[in-house]
Every structure is written in structure tokens, then in C-alpha cells.
Design goal:
Order of helices and strands: EHEHE
Number of domains: 1
Structural class: alpha/beta
Helix content: 10-25%
Largest sheet: 3 strands, parallel
Number of strands: 3
Strand content: 25-35%
Distance between the termini: 41 Å
Length: about 50
């Protein structure tokens, strides 16, 4: 299994490396080519969610 993860996700490589090959990438630079053979894509949301 292949996982592509945003490099800003803390401990992503350590958490998933026992289960899959993990590739860390800058989230803003992930392209279709980089995830072409990925089984899993892990991204983080940077959307602000608050009471305003």
C-alpha cells in the first residue's frame, strides 16, 4: 500500500509506516502525478472553523 501525506501532519510517517510506504510532500505542491499510484491521500484542512 502507498500513502501520500502532507508533511505538516505530525507523526504521519511514524504512524503509518508499519502498514504502508509513506511519502511526505508539501501539501500545496501535491499534484495528480504525485498521487497517481497512491492508495491513500492524507491532507489537512486549513479552513478556520470558529464562532464568527
Amino acid at each position: 500500500m502507498k500513502i501520500v501525506a502532507d508533511q505538516q501532519i505530525p507523526h504521519a510517517a511514524q504512524a503509518f509506516s508499519a502498514f504502508a510506504e509513506v511519502t511526505l510532500c508539501n501539501g500545496r505542491e501535491i499534484t495528480a502525478e504525485k498521487i497517481q499510484h497512491a492508495d491513500v491521500l492524507l491532507l489537512r484542512s486549513v479552513t478556520v472553523v470558529d464562532a464568527n
